[in-house]
Amino acid sequence: MRRGLWLAALALCGSALAGPAAYDYTRFVLPDDWVRNDEQRYASYSPPGGGVTLSILTRFGDDDAEDTLEDFIARAEKGETVIDAGKAEDVSNDGFDVYRQERRVRDADGRTVRRFYLAADKDDRATVIVIEGDEANYGRAETAARGVVSSLALMDKGAGEKAAPSELEEMAGEGGLDGFYVADPKRGFLNVNTMRWAYGVRPAALYFDPLGDVYRGAPARFDIDVFNACNADTAWRCGRYRIEGGEIVFRWADGSTERRPLQRDGEALRIGGLTFDPAPGGGAVPVGGFPWSDEFNTGDWPARDGDRKDVAYSIRFLEDGRFELRGVSGFRNPKVGAGILTGGRFRIDGHSVTLVYTSGASEVVGFARFPGDSGERLLIGGKVFGKP
C-alpha cells in the first residue's frame, strides 16, 4: 500500500504540466520542465536555467527524523557562515516522523544561499529532501520545488522499491542525432565524498544513437550495449528520443518523460536552455599526467584505501604509447590503494581506448575529449581525468 507524506496544500506553479516521478522508494510529482541531474549517489532535479536544485537522499538508517535532520545539516554546512538558522519544526502526521527547517547561509564562495530541509522517517528508513539555491534564483523556483515536496509519498517497505525498468517501444520518427554531447552548467550539489554542499561545474551528458536510443550520463563504453544495460537502479539513464519540430522528447525507462526545446547551433545542440557540445574521440595522442576528477559525483573510488591512506588517482600517457595508472588497478572491478601503480600500452581508436596491462590483461573502455576552456579533460571508462 502506498502511503503519502503530505506537508501542505501547495500547488505546483510555474509549470504548465507535471507528471509522476520516482526515486528509490519515494514517489512524487515533478514539473514537466524540470530535469534530473547526473548525480549517481542521490537524486537531484533542477528547473530550466538551473539556479536551484532539489535533492532526495534515501536510506539513512533508523535514526528518527529530528536526529537525521540535525546531523545532516551539521555535516553538509560545515565551514559555512549561518545567517539565519531558522527553527526545526515538527510536522509529523499520519504515522510519519517529519521535521523541516529553513536556513540562509554564506558559502565558501561568498554566495548567499537559501535552503529548505525536510527529514522524514518511515519503516526505519530516514529520508532527506533539500531545496537549495542562491538567493537571486531561489524565489523563482521555490513554489514549484515546495510543490514537489508536498506531493512526496514514501512506499511501504518492499513495495516496488526496485521495480524493473519499463519496456520502451519504438515509434516512427524517432532518432536523428548521433554521438556524445556534453554541457557544463554550474549549480549547487552535495559532494558525496565530503557530504558538504559545493558549487561549481557539474557536467550534463547525453549519448545519442541515430536510431532513437539515448543514454543520460557518461557511459563506460560507447556501443549499442550501453542502451540495453540499464537495470532497476539505472533505468533513469536509458531511454528513447524523438524530435518533434523544435522540440525533443525523451522517454526514460523509469517511466518519466521530458520535453525540451531543441535548436542546432553548428555542431552543438541547444536543449532546454543548455548548450551541449560534441565530445569527440580520437585526435592527437594525449601526453602527460591527468588526475581523476569526480565530476559525476560517483564516490566509487574512495578518498582512502583499506589501510586508511589517502589515494590520489591519475593516468599518465607517455610518448612511446605507454601509460601509467596510479591508485587503481584498472576500470573493471578495480583494486584501489595508495601504493598501486600499474601500466602497460594503450591504443586510441575513435571513442574507444584499448589498455593492455603489463600483467597481460586487457580491456577496452570508452574515450572522449570534453569540450571547455579549463584545459583538456578526458573521459576514460566513464571517469573524468583533467589537467591540473
What attributes characterize this protein structure?
388 residues; mainly beta; Protein Transport Mog1p, Chain A; Lipocalin; 3 domains; eight-stranded antiparallel β-sheet; eight-stranded antiparallel β-barrel; 7% helix; globular; disordered N terminus
Write the layout of secondary structure elements.
Elements: E1 2-4, E2 18-23, E3 26-31, E4 35-36, E5 43-46, E6 52-57, H1 65-76, E7 81-84, E8 89-90, E9 97-106, E10 112-122, E11 125-134, H2 135-150, E12 153-155, E13 179-183, E14 186-191, E15 196-201, E16 204-208, E17 213-216, E18 238-244, E19 247-252, E20 257-265, E21 268-271, E22 274-278, E23 288-293, E24 314-317, E25 322-328, E26 336-349, E27 352-357, E28 362-370, E29 377-380, E30 383-386
Antiparallel strand pairs: 1-12, 2-3, 3-12, 4-5, 5-6, 6-11, 7-9, 8-9, 9-10, 10-11, 13-16, 13-22, 14-15, 16-17, 17-18, 18-19, 19-20, 20-21, 21-22, 23-24, 23-30, 24-25, 25-26, 26-27, 27-28, 28-29, 29-30
CATH architecture descriptor name of the largest domain: 3-Layer(aba) Sandwich
**Main beta sheet strand tally, sense and closure:** 8 strands, antiparallel
Helix content: under 10%
Number of helices: 2
Q: How would you summarize what this structure contains?
A:
By secondary structure, the protein is mostly beta strands.
Describe the structure.
With 388 residues, the protein is mainly β. The chain has three domains: 2-155, Protein Transport Mog1p, Chain A; 179-278, Beta Barrel (Lipocalin); 288-386, Beta Barrel (Lipocalin). Helix content is 7%, strand content 46%. The chain contains two helices and 30 strands. The protein has helices at residues 65-76, 135-150, and strands at 2-4, 18-23, 26-31, 35-36, 43-46, 52-57, 81-84, 89-90, 97-106, 112-122, 125-134, 153-155, 179-183, 186-191, 196-201, 204-208, 213-216, 238-244, 247-252, 257-265, 268-271, 274-278, 288-293, 314-317, 322-328, 336-349, 352-357, 362-370, 377-380, 383-386. The strands form five sheets. Strands 4, 5, 6, 7, 8, 9, 10 and 11 form an eight-stranded antiparallel sheet that branches. Strands 13-16-17-18-19-20-21-22 form an eight-stranded antiparallel β-barrel. An eight-stranded antiparallel β-barrel has the order 23-24-25-26-27-28-29-30. It is globular and about 65 Å long. The model is unreliable at 1-16 (pLDDT under 50).
